[in-house]
Amino acid sequence: MNDWRNRIGLFLVAASFAASVIWILVRPSPGDGAPTDRQEPVVIRFAHVTIHPGIIRAYDDAIRDYEKLNPGVRVVQMPVPIRMWSAWLRTQMVGGNAPDLADMDRGQPDEFLARYFLPLDEWVEQPNPYNVGTELEGRRWRETFINDLRSGRAYRVNLQQVYGIPFTIQTVRLFANANLLREITGSTKVPENYAELIALCHEIEAYSERTGRTILPFAGSVNHTHHYLNRLFGSQTQRLMNEPAVNVHRSFVPIVPEVYMTAYLAYLRGSWSWRDPAVASGLTMMREIAGYTTTGFLQLQRDDSLFQFAQGRALFLPTGSWDADTILAGVPFPMAILPVPLPTTDDGVRGSLTLGPISDLSETPGNAVGVARSSRHPEIAVDFLRYLTSQPVSRRVMQDSNRLSSILGVAPPESIAGFAPRLHGFPLGFHPGLTPEGSEAERVYRSLLHRLVSRGGSVEDFTDAIERVFPAAIMADLRRFNATARETSRVDDALLVAGWVGPEAKEATTSRRLDLMLETQTLRELAAAQAEWATANAQLSSQTPAAKAP
What we know:
The chain is of the alpha/beta class and 550 residues long. It folds into two domains: 42-169 and 364-419, 3-Layer(aba) Sandwich (D-Maltodextrin-Binding Protein, domain 2), CATH 3.40.190.10; 172-362 and 435-470, D-Maltodextrin-Binding Protein, domain 2, CATH 3.40.190. Helix content is 49%, strand content 10%. The protein is built from 20 helices and twelve strands. It has helices at residues 2-26, 53-69, 82-94, 110-116, 121-124, 178-185, 194-211, 225-236, 238-241, 256-269, 277-290, 302-310, 324-330, 348-352, 378-388, 391-401, 440-448, 450-453, 459-501, 508-540, and strands at 42-48, 73-79, 101-103, 155-156, 161-162, 165-169, 172-177, 216-218, 314-320, 335-339, 366-371, 404-405. Strands 2-1-3-11-6-12 form a six-stranded mixed β-sheet. Strands 8-9-7-10 form a four-stranded mixed β-sheet. It has a two-stranded antiparallel sheet with strand order 4-5. Mean pLDDT is 83; it is low at 4-38 and 539-550.
Protein backbone atom coordinates (compact mmCIF):
# COMPACT_ATOMS: atom_id res chain seq x y z
CA MET A 1 0.00 0.00 0.00
CA ASN A 2 2.79 2.38 0.97
CA ASP A 3 4.55 1.49 -2.31
CA TRP A 4 1.52 2.67 -4.31
CA ARG A 5 1.25 5.88 -2.32
CA ASN A 6 4.94 6.65 -2.97
CA ARG A 7 4.52 5.99 -6.68
CA ILE A 8 1.45 8.23 -6.91
CA GLY A 9 3.31 10.99 -5.05
CA LEU A 10 6.31 10.76 -7.35
CA PHE A 11 4.02 10.82 -10.39
CA LEU A 12 2.26 13.99 -9.20
CA VAL A 13 5.57 15.75 -8.52
CA ALA A 14 6.91 14.81 -11.97
CA ALA A 15 3.69 15.95 -13.65
CA SER A 16 3.80 19.30 -11.88
CA PHE A 17 7.45 19.82 -12.86
CA ALA A 18 6.71 18.94 -16.52
CA ALA A 19 3.75 21.33 -16.62
CA SER A 20 5.93 24.13 -15.21
CA VAL A 21 8.63 23.55 -17.82
CA ILE A 22 6.08 23.55 -20.65
CA TRP A 23 4.53 26.81 -19.35
CA ILE A 24 7.92 28.53 -19.19
CA LEU A 25 8.78 27.45 -22.71
CA VAL A 26 5.52 28.42 -24.40
CA ARG A 27 4.32 31.49 -22.43
CA PRO A 28 4.77 34.79 -24.29
CA SER A 29 7.40 37.21 -22.97
CA PRO A 30 6.88 40.99 -22.95
CA GLY A 31 9.09 41.28 -26.00
CA ASP A 32 6.98 38.72 -27.85
CA GLY A 33 3.85 40.83 -27.78
CA ALA A 34 2.60 40.11 -24.29
CA PRO A 35 -0.15 42.48 -23.17
CA THR A 36 1.40 45.66 -21.77
CA ASP A 37 -1.07 45.74 -18.89
CA ARG A 38 0.43 42.49 -17.58
CA GLN A 39 4.01 43.78 -17.51
CA GLU A 40 5.52 44.26 -14.10
CA PRO A 41 6.37 47.90 -13.33
CA VAL A 42 10.00 48.99 -13.17
CA VAL A 43 10.91 49.23 -9.47
CA ILE A 44 13.44 51.84 -8.32
CA ARG A 45 14.55 51.46 -4.69
CA PHE A 46 15.60 54.71 -3.01
CA ALA A 47 17.56 54.25 0.24
CA HIS A 48 18.58 57.16 2.49
CA VAL A 49 19.26 58.06 6.12
CA THR A 50 17.05 61.15 6.36
CA ILE A 51 14.44 59.46 8.51
CA HIS A 52 12.70 62.56 9.91
CA PRO A 53 8.93 62.13 9.44
CA GLY A 54 8.57 65.38 7.48
CA ILE A 55 11.05 64.49 4.76
CA ILE A 56 9.70 60.94 4.45
CA ARG A 57 6.18 62.35 3.90
CA ALA A 58 7.50 64.91 1.42
CA TYR A 59 9.36 62.22 -0.54
CA ASP A 60 6.24 60.02 -0.53
CA ASP A 61 4.19 62.84 -2.04
CA ALA A 62 6.84 63.51 -4.69
CA ILE A 63 7.05 59.79 -5.48
CA ARG A 64 3.28 59.56 -6.02
CA ASP A 65 3.39 62.49 -8.43
CA TYR A 66 6.37 61.01 -10.28
CA GLU A 67 4.61 57.66 -10.64
CA LYS A 68 1.57 59.45 -12.13
CA LEU A 69 3.87 60.97 -14.76
CA ASN A 70 5.51 57.57 -15.32
CA PRO A 71 2.84 54.86 -14.90
CA GLY A 72 5.27 52.04 -15.60
CA VAL A 73 7.60 53.03 -12.75
CA ARG A 74 7.29 52.36 -9.03
CA VAL A 75 9.66 54.06 -6.57
CA VAL A 76 10.13 52.42 -3.17
CA GLN A 77 11.48 54.65 -0.39
CA MET A 78 13.81 52.86 2.08
CA PRO A 79 14.71 55.00 5.13
CA VAL A 80 17.60 53.47 7.11
CA PRO A 81 18.82 54.73 10.54
CA ILE A 82 22.19 56.45 10.20
CA ARG A 83 23.80 54.25 12.86
CA MET A 84 23.16 51.22 10.66
CA TRP A 85 23.83 52.91 7.34
CA SER A 86 27.49 52.20 6.68
CA ALA A 87 27.31 48.48 7.50
CA TRP A 88 23.92 48.11 5.83
CA LEU A 89 24.99 49.76 2.56
CA ARG A 90 28.22 47.78 2.32
CA THR A 91 26.34 44.53 2.94
CA GLN A 92 23.78 45.36 0.26
CA MET A 93 26.43 46.35 -2.29
CA VAL A 94 28.68 43.35 -1.70
CA GLY A 95 25.72 40.98 -1.55
CA GLY A 96 24.38 42.10 -4.92
CA ASN A 97 21.15 43.47 -3.44
CA ALA A 98 21.96 47.18 -3.66
CA PRO A 99 19.23 49.81 -3.92
CA ASP A 100 19.14 51.73 -7.19
CA LEU A 101 19.62 55.06 -5.38
CA ALA A 102 21.51 55.56 -2.13
CA ASP A 103 23.13 58.25 0.01
CA MET A 104 26.79 58.45 -0.97
CA ASP A 105 28.15 61.29 1.22
CA ARG A 106 28.18 59.49 4.57
CA GLY A 107 31.91 58.96 4.79
CA GLN A 108 32.24 56.44 1.97
CA PRO A 109 35.82 56.39 0.65
CA ASP A 110 36.61 57.02 -3.00
CA GLU A 111 37.42 53.36 -3.63
CA PHE A 112 33.95 52.34 -2.44
CA LEU A 113 32.26 54.87 -4.71
CA ALA A 114 34.36 53.92 -7.72
CA ARG A 115 33.46 50.27 -7.25
CA TYR A 116 29.76 50.48 -6.44
CA PHE A 117 28.42 53.82 -7.80
CA LEU A 118 28.04 55.19 -11.31
CA PRO A 119 29.77 58.45 -12.31
CA LEU A 120 27.08 60.91 -13.34
CA ASP A 121 29.09 63.33 -15.52
CA GLU A 122 27.28 62.30 -18.71
CA TRP A 123 23.90 63.28 -17.26
CA VAL A 124 24.83 66.44 -15.31
CA GLU A 125 26.03 68.11 -18.53
CA GLN A 126 22.52 67.82 -19.98
CA PRO A 127 19.53 70.06 -19.12
CA ASN A 128 17.06 68.87 -16.51
CA PRO A 129 13.81 68.33 -18.49
CA TYR A 130 11.71 68.89 -15.36
CA ASN A 131 12.86 72.52 -15.23
CA VAL A 132 10.97 73.42 -18.40
CA GLY A 133 8.96 76.58 -17.80
CA THR A 134 11.21 77.78 -14.96
CA GLU A 135 14.11 80.23 -14.84
CA LEU A 136 16.43 77.21 -14.99
CA GLU A 137 15.07 75.88 -18.29
CA GLY A 138 17.80 74.94 -20.74
CA ARG A 139 20.64 75.18 -18.22
CA ARG A 140 22.87 72.18 -17.68
CA TRP A 141 21.73 70.12 -14.70
CA ARG A 142 24.97 70.88 -12.84
CA GLU A 143 24.36 74.62 -13.26
CA THR A 144 21.05 74.45 -11.40
CA PHE A 145 22.77 73.74 -8.06
CA ILE A 146 24.03 76.38 -5.66
CA ASN A 147 27.70 75.50 -6.13
CA ASP A 148 27.64 73.98 -9.62
CA LEU A 149 28.21 70.48 -8.13
CA ARG A 150 31.76 71.38 -7.13
CA SER A 151 31.49 70.26 -3.49
CA GLY A 152 33.27 67.14 -2.28
CA ARG A 153 29.92 65.55 -1.52
CA ALA A 154 29.03 65.54 -5.21
CA TYR A 155 32.30 65.80 -7.15
CA ARG A 156 35.15 63.57 -6.00
CA VAL A 157 38.42 65.29 -6.86
CA ASN A 158 40.50 62.12 -6.67
CA LEU A 159 38.13 60.33 -9.04
CA GLN A 160 37.60 63.41 -11.25
CA GLN A 161 33.89 62.66 -11.56
CA VAL A 162 30.49 63.52 -10.11
CA TYR A 163 29.10 60.68 -8.03
CA GLY A 164 26.24 62.30 -6.13
CA ILE A 165 23.33 64.69 -6.52
CA PRO A 166 22.88 66.83 -3.37
CA PHE A 167 19.35 67.71 -2.26
CA THR A 168 19.91 70.18 0.58
CA ILE A 169 22.27 72.59 2.27
CA GLN A 170 22.72 72.82 6.04
CA THR A 171 23.38 75.77 8.31
CA VAL A 172 23.83 75.90 12.10
CA ARG A 173 21.74 78.19 14.29
CA LEU A 174 20.27 78.41 17.81
CA PHE A 175 16.64 77.69 18.61
CA ALA A 176 15.44 79.85 21.51
CA ASN A 177 12.39 79.29 23.72
CA ALA A 178 10.61 82.63 23.17
CA ASN A 179 8.28 82.26 26.17
CA LEU A 180 11.13 81.39 28.52
CA LEU A 181 13.26 84.24 27.18
CA ARG A 182 10.47 86.74 27.91
CA GLU A 183 9.93 85.22 31.35
CA ILE A 184 13.60 85.59 32.28
CA THR A 185 14.46 88.92 30.65
CA GLY A 186 11.14 90.68 30.16
CA SER A 187 11.60 90.78 26.38
CA THR A 188 12.18 88.51 23.38
CA LYS A 189 15.40 90.24 22.29
CA VAL A 190 18.02 87.62 21.49
CA PRO A 191 21.79 88.06 21.98
CA GLU A 192 23.56 89.30 18.88
CA ASN A 193 27.15 88.54 19.93
CA TYR A 194 29.17 86.51 22.39
CA ALA A 195 29.37 89.23 25.06
CA GLU A 196 25.58 89.60 25.10
CA LEU A 197 25.22 85.81 25.25
CA ILE A 198 27.44 85.49 28.33
CA ALA A 199 25.55 88.34 30.01
CA LEU A 200 22.30 86.46 29.32
CA CYS A 201 23.79 83.25 30.75
CA HIS A 202 24.50 85.12 34.00
CA GLU A 203 20.93 86.41 33.99
CA ILE A 204 19.61 82.85 33.56
CA GLU A 205 21.70 81.68 36.53
CA ALA A 206 20.33 84.51 38.68
CA TYR A 207 16.77 83.66 37.60
CA SER A 208 17.25 79.99 38.51
CA GLU A 209 18.65 80.89 41.93
CA ARG A 210 15.86 83.40 42.58
CA THR A 211 12.98 81.11 41.57
CA GLY A 212 14.40 77.73 42.59
CA ARG A 213 13.64 76.51 39.07
CA THR A 214 16.65 74.98 37.36
CA ILE A 215 17.02 76.45 33.88
CA LEU A 216 20.16 75.97 31.79
CA PRO A 217 21.25 78.28 28.98
CA PHE A 218 21.91 75.33 26.62
CA ALA A 219 20.43 71.89 26.09
CA GLY A 220 23.37 69.72 25.07
CA SER A 221 24.38 66.40 23.57
CA VAL A 222 27.32 64.99 21.68
CA ASN A 223 25.34 65.55 18.47
CA HIS A 224 24.30 69.15 19.03
CA THR A 225 26.94 70.86 21.15
CA HIS A 226 29.91 70.12 18.87
CA HIS A 227 28.48 72.43 16.20
CA TYR A 228 28.60 75.44 18.53
CA LEU A 229 31.96 74.55 20.09
CA ASN A 230 33.59 74.25 16.67
CA ARG A 231 32.29 77.67 15.67
CA LEU A 232 33.54 79.26 18.89
CA PHE A 233 37.01 77.85 18.31
CA GLY A 234 36.94 78.66 14.58
CA SER A 235 36.08 82.30 15.30
CA GLN A 236 39.31 82.61 17.28
CA THR A 237 41.52 81.01 14.62
CA GLN A 238 40.28 83.18 11.74
CA ARG A 239 43.26 85.56 11.83
CA LEU A 240 45.69 82.77 12.68
CA MET A 241 44.50 80.81 9.65
CA ASN A 242 45.49 83.75 7.44
CA GLU A 243 48.90 84.44 8.95
CA PRO A 244 51.66 84.06 6.30
CA ALA A 245 53.45 81.46 8.42
CA VAL A 246 50.30 79.31 8.58
CA ASN A 247 48.63 79.96 5.24
CA VAL A 248 51.68 80.26 3.01
CA HIS A 249 49.53 80.81 -0.11
CA ARG A 250 47.68 83.72 1.57
CA SER A 251 44.30 82.58 0.31
CA PHE A 252 40.96 82.07 2.00
CA VAL A 253 40.42 78.33 2.29
CA PRO A 254 36.80 77.67 3.26
CA ILE A 255 36.77 74.08 2.00
CA VAL A 256 37.41 71.55 4.78
CA PRO A 257 40.11 69.39 3.11
CA GLU A 258 42.18 72.47 2.26
CA VAL A 259 41.72 73.90 5.76
CA TYR A 260 42.98 70.83 7.55
CA MET A 261 45.87 70.26 5.14
CA THR A 262 46.99 73.87 5.63
CA ALA A 263 46.64 73.59 9.41
CA TYR A 264 48.40 70.19 9.55
CA LEU A 265 51.44 71.38 7.65
CA ALA A 266 51.63 74.60 9.63
CA TYR A 267 51.54 72.65 12.89
CA LEU A 268 54.41 70.41 11.80
CA ARG A 269 56.38 73.49 10.75
CA GLY A 270 55.85 74.93 14.22
CA SER A 271 53.76 77.84 12.91
CA TRP A 272 51.10 77.29 15.58
CA SER A 273 50.72 75.20 18.71
CA TRP A 274 48.06 74.31 21.25
CA ARG A 275 49.46 77.12 23.42
CA ASP A 276 49.07 79.78 20.75
CA PRO A 277 46.97 82.72 22.12
CA ALA A 278 44.28 82.20 19.47
CA VAL A 279 44.03 78.47 20.19
CA ALA A 280 44.01 79.03 23.96
CA SER A 281 41.26 81.65 23.57
CA GLY A 282 39.16 79.23 21.51
CA LEU A 283 39.58 76.49 24.10
CA THR A 284 38.69 78.91 26.92
CA MET A 285 35.46 79.90 25.16
CA MET A 286 34.59 76.25 24.56
CA ARG A 287 35.01 75.50 28.24
CA GLU A 288 32.98 78.56 29.19
CA ILE A 289 29.99 77.53 27.06
CA ALA A 290 30.29 73.92 28.21
CA GLY A 291 29.80 75.20 31.75
CA TYR A 292 26.40 76.56 30.72
CA THR A 293 25.39 73.32 29.03
CA THR A 294 23.82 70.10 30.29
CA THR A 295 26.23 68.24 32.57
CA GLY A 296 27.73 65.21 30.85
CA PHE A 297 26.55 66.27 27.38
CA LEU A 298 29.32 64.22 25.75
CA GLN A 299 27.48 61.08 26.89
CA LEU A 300 24.04 62.28 25.77
CA GLN A 301 22.45 61.72 22.38
CA ARG A 302 20.37 63.90 20.09
CA ASP A 303 17.02 62.85 21.57
CA ASP A 304 18.21 63.72 25.10
CA SER A 305 18.90 67.36 24.25
CA LEU A 306 15.73 67.64 22.15
CA PHE A 307 13.69 66.36 25.11
CA GLN A 308 15.33 68.74 27.57
CA PHE A 309 14.69 71.71 25.28
CA ALA A 310 11.09 70.67 24.58
CA GLN A 311 10.47 70.35 28.34
CA GLY A 312 11.43 74.00 28.83
CA ARG A 313 14.49 73.19 30.95
CA ALA A 314 16.95 75.02 28.66
CA LEU A 315 16.68 78.32 26.83
CA PHE A 316 18.73 77.46 23.73
CA LEU A 317 19.32 74.44 21.51
CA PRO A 318 22.26 74.67 19.06
CA THR A 319 21.54 72.57 16.00
CA GLY A 320 21.39 72.51 12.22
CA SER A 321 18.66 73.02 9.66
CA TRP A 322 18.44 69.23 9.33
CA ASP A 323 16.71 69.11 12.75
CA ALA A 324 14.29 71.98 12.11
CA ASP A 325 11.31 69.89 11.01
CA THR A 326 11.53 67.59 14.04
CA ILE A 327 11.81 70.53 16.44
CA LEU A 328 8.99 72.53 14.86
CA ALA A 329 6.72 69.48 15.01
CA GLY A 330 7.61 68.41 18.56
CA VAL A 331 8.10 71.62 20.54
CA PRO A 332 4.91 73.12 22.06
CA PHE A 333 6.06 76.76 22.45
CA PRO A 334 6.97 79.59 20.06
CA MET A 335 10.65 79.82 19.13
CA ALA A 336 13.13 82.27 17.72
CA ILE A 337 15.93 81.20 15.36
CA LEU A 338 19.17 83.17 15.66
CA PRO A 339 22.72 82.97 14.31
CA VAL A 340 25.33 81.48 16.62
CA PRO A 341 26.51 84.42 18.79
CA LEU A 342 30.24 84.92 18.26
CA PRO A 343 32.73 87.62 19.33
CA THR A 344 32.71 90.87 17.38
CA THR A 345 35.93 92.63 16.37
CA ASP A 346 35.55 95.16 19.23
CA ASP A 347 35.27 92.44 21.91
CA GLY A 348 38.66 92.93 23.64
CA VAL A 349 41.18 90.11 23.23
CA ARG A 350 38.61 87.76 21.70
CA GLY A 351 37.67 90.36 19.11
CA SER A 352 41.27 90.98 18.14
CA LEU A 353 41.58 87.33 17.04
CA THR A 354 38.55 87.31 14.76
CA LEU A 355 38.06 88.82 11.30
CA GLY A 356 34.34 89.43 11.55
CA PRO A 357 30.95 87.81 10.89
CA ILE A 358 30.91 84.21 9.70
CA SER A 359 29.72 83.42 6.18
CA ASP A 360 27.81 80.23 5.35
CA LEU A 361 29.40 79.98 1.91
CA SER A 362 31.62 77.17 3.16
CA GLU A 363 28.52 75.09 3.94
CA THR A 364 28.37 72.92 0.86
CA PRO A 365 25.26 71.05 -0.36
CA GLY A 366 24.73 67.64 1.21
CA ASN A 367 22.32 64.72 1.40
CA ALA A 368 23.86 63.65 -1.91
CA VAL A 369 22.38 60.57 -3.55
CA GLY A 370 24.12 58.37 -6.09
CA VAL A 371 23.14 55.62 -8.54
CA ALA A 372 24.37 52.08 -7.88
CA ARG A 373 26.37 50.40 -10.65
CA SER A 374 24.24 47.31 -10.17
CA SER A 375 21.00 49.18 -10.91
CA ARG A 376 19.07 47.49 -13.72
CA HIS A 377 17.50 50.82 -14.68
CA PRO A 378 20.11 53.57 -14.24
CA GLU A 379 18.43 55.90 -16.75
CA ILE A 380 15.18 55.81 -14.79
CA ALA A 381 17.03 56.22 -11.48
CA VAL A 382 18.73 59.35 -12.87
CA ASP A 383 15.41 60.59 -14.21
CA PHE A 384 13.90 60.36 -10.72
CA LEU A 385 16.87 62.31 -9.33
CA ARG A 386 16.25 64.98 -11.96
CA TYR A 387 12.63 65.14 -10.93
CA LEU A 388 13.44 65.54 -7.22
CA THR A 389 16.01 68.27 -7.94
CA SER A 390 13.91 70.26 -10.38
CA GLN A 391 13.07 73.73 -9.08
CA PRO A 392 9.30 73.24 -8.61
CA VAL A 393 9.56 69.81 -6.97
CA SER A 394 12.48 70.79 -4.75
CA ARG A 395 10.54 73.89 -3.63
CA ARG A 396 7.56 71.72 -2.67
CA VAL A 397 9.64 69.04 -0.91
CA MET A 398 11.62 71.61 1.09
CA GLN A 399 8.44 73.50 2.02
CA ASP A 400 6.78 70.31 3.25
CA SER A 401 9.84 69.12 5.18
CA ASN A 402 11.26 72.43 6.49
CA ARG A 403 14.63 72.06 4.85
CA LEU A 404 16.99 74.22 2.76
CA SER A 405 17.24 73.37 -0.93
CA SER A 406 20.48 73.02 -2.88
CA ILE A 407 18.69 74.26 -6.02
CA LEU A 408 19.06 77.82 -7.29
CA GLY A 409 16.03 80.02 -6.84
CA VAL A 410 14.39 77.93 -4.11
CA ALA A 411 13.90 80.20 -1.10
CA PRO A 412 13.88 78.77 2.45
CA PRO A 413 10.44 77.94 3.84
CA GLU A 414 9.10 80.83 5.93
CA SER A 415 9.09 78.60 9.02
CA ILE A 416 12.91 78.33 8.94
CA ALA A 417 13.81 81.66 7.37
CA GLY A 418 16.33 82.12 10.18
CA PHE A 419 18.38 79.25 8.73
CA ALA A 420 18.83 81.00 5.37
CA PRO A 421 22.54 80.96 4.43
CA ARG A 422 24.47 84.12 5.26
CA LEU A 423 26.35 85.11 2.13
CA HIS A 424 28.44 87.95 3.58
CA GLY A 425 31.29 87.53 6.00
CA PHE A 426 34.44 85.46 6.46
CA PRO A 427 35.11 81.73 6.58
CA LEU A 428 35.79 80.12 9.95
CA GLY A 429 39.33 79.25 10.92
CA PHE A 430 40.20 75.65 11.68
CA HIS A 431 38.44 73.89 14.57
CA PRO A 432 40.00 71.62 17.23
CA GLY A 433 39.65 68.28 15.44
CA LEU A 434 40.74 69.92 12.16
CA THR A 435 39.04 67.30 10.00
CA PRO A 436 35.69 65.58 9.52
CA GLU A 437 34.95 62.43 11.47
CA GLY A 438 37.08 59.45 10.54
CA SER A 439 40.54 60.98 10.81
CA GLU A 440 43.03 60.11 13.52
CA ALA A 441 43.26 63.79 14.54
CA GLU A 442 39.49 63.94 15.05
CA ARG A 443 39.55 60.69 17.02
CA VAL A 444 42.19 61.82 19.51
CA TYR A 445 40.54 65.23 19.89
CA ARG A 446 37.18 63.72 20.73
CA SER A 447 38.72 61.16 23.07
CA LEU A 448 40.33 63.97 25.08
CA LEU A 449 37.57 66.58 24.93
CA HIS A 450 36.22 65.59 28.35
CA ARG A 451 39.47 66.93 29.85
CA LEU A 452 38.42 70.37 28.62
CA VAL A 453 34.64 70.52 29.10
CA SER A 454 33.97 68.37 32.20
CA ARG A 455 33.44 70.01 35.57
CA GLY A 456 36.89 68.89 36.76
CA GLY A 457 38.66 69.62 33.48
CA SER A 458 40.66 72.62 32.37
CA VAL A 459 42.29 74.18 29.33
CA GLU A 460 45.70 73.27 30.74
CA ASP A 461 44.77 69.63 31.31
CA PHE A 462 43.41 69.28 27.77
CA THR A 463 46.41 71.06 26.25
CA ASP A 464 48.91 68.86 28.09
CA ALA A 465 47.09 65.70 26.97
CA ILE A 466 46.59 66.58 23.31
CA GLU A 467 50.17 67.82 22.84
CA ARG A 468 51.40 64.31 23.61
CA VAL A 469 49.35 62.59 20.92
CA PHE A 470 48.53 65.16 18.27
CA PRO A 471 51.77 65.03 16.24
CA ALA A 472 51.55 61.27 15.82
CA ALA A 473 47.85 61.57 14.87
CA ILE A 474 48.33 64.12 12.11
CA MET A 475 51.38 62.30 10.75
CA ALA A 476 49.22 59.17 10.47
CA ASP A 477 46.59 61.19 8.60
CA LEU A 478 49.20 62.69 6.28
CA ARG A 479 50.68 59.27 5.51
CA ARG A 480 47.22 58.04 4.61
CA PHE A 481 46.69 61.11 2.42
CA ASN A 482 50.01 60.49 0.65
CA ALA A 483 49.21 56.83 0.05
CA THR A 484 45.84 57.75 -1.44
CA ALA A 485 47.41 60.50 -3.55
CA ARG A 486 50.02 58.11 -4.98
CA GLU A 487 47.43 55.50 -5.86
CA THR A 488 45.10 58.07 -7.40
CA SER A 489 47.92 59.59 -9.45
CA ARG A 490 48.79 56.19 -10.87
CA VAL A 491 45.20 55.73 -11.99
CA ASP A 492 45.05 59.28 -13.38
CA ASP A 493 48.31 58.78 -15.30
CA ALA A 494 46.74 55.90 -17.19
CA LEU A 495 43.54 57.87 -17.84
CA LEU A 496 45.47 60.92 -19.07
CA VAL A 497 47.59 58.89 -21.48
CA ALA A 498 44.51 57.08 -22.77
CA GLY A 499 42.75 60.41 -23.26
CA TRP A 500 45.64 62.05 -25.04
CA VAL A 501 46.15 59.21 -27.55
CA GLY A 502 42.52 58.11 -27.86
CA PRO A 503 40.21 58.80 -30.81
CA GLU A 504 38.31 61.53 -28.90
CA ALA A 505 41.43 63.45 -27.81
CA LYS A 506 40.71 66.47 -30.02
CA GLU A 507 37.09 66.88 -28.96
CA ALA A 508 36.46 70.01 -26.90
CA THR A 509 34.72 68.17 -24.03
CA THR A 510 37.52 65.60 -23.75
CA SER A 511 40.19 68.29 -23.92
CA ARG A 512 38.57 70.32 -21.11
CA ARG A 513 38.25 67.24 -18.91
CA LEU A 514 41.88 66.26 -19.50
CA ASP A 515 43.06 69.79 -18.68
CA LEU A 516 41.07 69.72 -15.43
CA MET A 517 42.44 66.29 -14.56
CA LEU A 518 46.02 67.44 -15.18
CA GLU A 519 45.56 70.61 -13.11
CA THR A 520 43.98 68.68 -10.23
CA GLN A 521 46.66 66.01 -10.33
CA THR A 522 49.41 68.64 -10.25
CA LEU A 523 47.87 70.34 -7.22
CA ARG A 524 47.36 66.97 -5.50
CA GLU A 525 50.96 65.96 -6.10
CA LEU A 526 52.15 69.35 -4.81
CA ALA A 527 50.11 68.87 -1.62
CA ALA A 528 51.46 65.33 -1.26
CA ALA A 529 55.05 66.54 -1.70
CA GLN A 530 54.52 69.20 0.97
CA ALA A 531 52.98 66.64 3.30
CA GLU A 532 55.79 64.17 2.68
CA TRP A 533 58.43 66.80 3.41
CA ALA A 534 56.68 67.94 6.59
CA THR A 535 56.21 64.37 7.79
CA ALA A 536 59.85 63.47 7.16
CA ASN A 537 61.10 66.52 9.00
CA ALA A 538 58.70 65.96 11.89
CA GLN A 539 59.96 62.39 12.18
CA LEU A 540 63.53 63.68 12.51
CA SER A 541 62.49 65.52 15.68
CA SER A 542 60.14 62.81 16.90
CA GLN A 543 62.22 62.29 20.03
CA THR A 544 60.97 65.57 21.49
CA PRO A 545 58.38 65.10 24.27
CA ALA A 546 55.62 66.83 22.28
CA ALA A 547 55.89 64.35 19.43
CA LYS A 548 55.87 61.18 21.49
CA ALA A 549 52.71 59.13 21.84
CA PRO A 550 51.69 58.54 25.49
